[in-house]
Amino acid sequence: MINTKRNFWLKFAMLLLIVNFACPIRVASGDQLHTPGYYDVNVRKLYAAQDYKRARKLLEQGLKSYPTNSTLNQLMGMYYLRHNQYEKARYYLYRGVRYNSGNHEAKRYLLAVEERTRNYSSAICYINELLEVQ
User: Buried b / exposed e across 91-108, counting CB within 10 Å, b at 16+?
Assistant: First the structure.
């Protein structure tokens, strides 16, 4: 009886060691993946503090992990709109709308891009889409 219990615990310990080496647990570190919400909140804080350089680095990190996230694409578009790089702003804002057609904030920023670049026909389309929601 004692021998079978000992064998059981020995086998159990061996199983734990095998599982530990086969499926290592990720320990939190500086390069840890964060959730899209983490990037959203922190980038908006950096925007409010007008620290655009750090915001862009954080967004690039977030978009590497979550390239199809609507909000992160929208925030990157906002960055480029702020820096008057309208083609890049349009690209990211459009991706924000493409991945989530209900992202009305991205549509408002797209409207601003189209107005600034004098693409009034596109601007009218975005106005109509926003009016449908109202």
Answer: bbbbbbbebbeebebbbe
Backbone angles phi, psi at 83, to 5 degrees: -100, 15
- In whole angstroms, how far apart are CA 57 and each of 51, 62, 71, 85, 128? 11, 9, 16, 17, 34
pLDDT tens sequence across 45-77: 999 999 999 999 999 999 998 999 999 999 999
CB 99 within 8 Å of CB 63: no
The interaxial angle of helices 52-65 and 36-48, nearest 10 deg, is 170
> How many Cα neighbours within 13 Å face the side chain of 68?
4
The 10s digit of each residue's pLDDT in 99-120 is: 988 888 888 899 888 888 887 7
CA triple 33-36-38, angle to 5 deg: 75
Separation of CA 114 from chain center: 24
Return the amino acid letter for 115: E
